[in-house]
Structures are given as C-alpha cells and as structure tokens.
Amino acid sequence: MSGVLWCVVSLVGLDDVSQGAIGPSLIVVNLTPNEILIICLVALIALGPKQLPETARKIAKGFGELRRHSSQLRAEFTSVVDQAVEESHDEELLRQAKETNDCPPQDVNPREPQ
User: Fold this and answer.
1) Residue 79's domain spans which residues?
2) Among 16, 25, 65, 111, which is disulfide-ready with 21 (CB 3.0 to 4.6 Å)?
C-alpha cells in the first residue's frame, strides 16, 4: 500500500518539496491525507493490484513529460522576451544618441575650465 500512496503523492506534486524544488508545482491540489487514502483505495478497487502500478507509472511519466515541455516553453518564452527587451533598450539608446547629436551647438553648455 505504501507504493500506491507514493505514486499518488508523486502524481499530485507533493514530492517536489522533498526534492528541493523551487516554485509552484504544476498541479495545485489541496488534498488531506484522508482524501489521498480514499483516492488510493478507489484506484486499487477500480484497476486492481496488477494494473495499478503500471497505470501509476504511465501517469507519472506523462506528468514528467508535461513538466519538461512546460519548462522548455517557459525558458524559450523568457529568452524571447529578454531578447525583445534588449533590442528595445538598444533602439532607445540609439534614439537618444541621435537626439543629442541633432542638438544645435548653442544649446550645449561646454564646461568652463576652472
């Protein structure tokens, strides 16, 4: 039974805390221990003791792939946003440099030697 409980705990993302994961889990579930036990019992009755471990592995593997794809998408999105911000900043600096070069000489106050 402890193997089944571990499968359910890993599926709902509660094992992330023990692995030192930072940030929210993919699945935000607020389950009490009694609710987890009921889910395990229902799964055991519905699937049977032979199919339950294989089904739990498949579900866990699917969630793992989902997490990998999610982190890849997040990294790609962050990269694109950072690149756009950098380009915008560069364009703003070029615009400001052009404006200062376009100033008439009488508007510029040269430093007087002391």
Assistant:
1) 2-100
2) 16
**Digit-coded pLDDT (tens) for 83-94:** 999 999 999 988
The whole-angstrom separation of Cα 28 and Cα 20 is 17
Look up tokens 């915008």; give the residue. 88
Which tokens in the block code for residue 40? Answer: 């395990």
Specify the residue for token string 């792939």: 65
Q: Domain for residue 81, yes or no? A: yes
Tell whether 111 is covered by a domain: no
Instruction: List CB contacts of 71: < 8 A, sequence separation 6 or more.
Output: none
The answer to whether residue 58 is domain-embedded is yes
Q: Is residue 114 part of a domain?
A: no
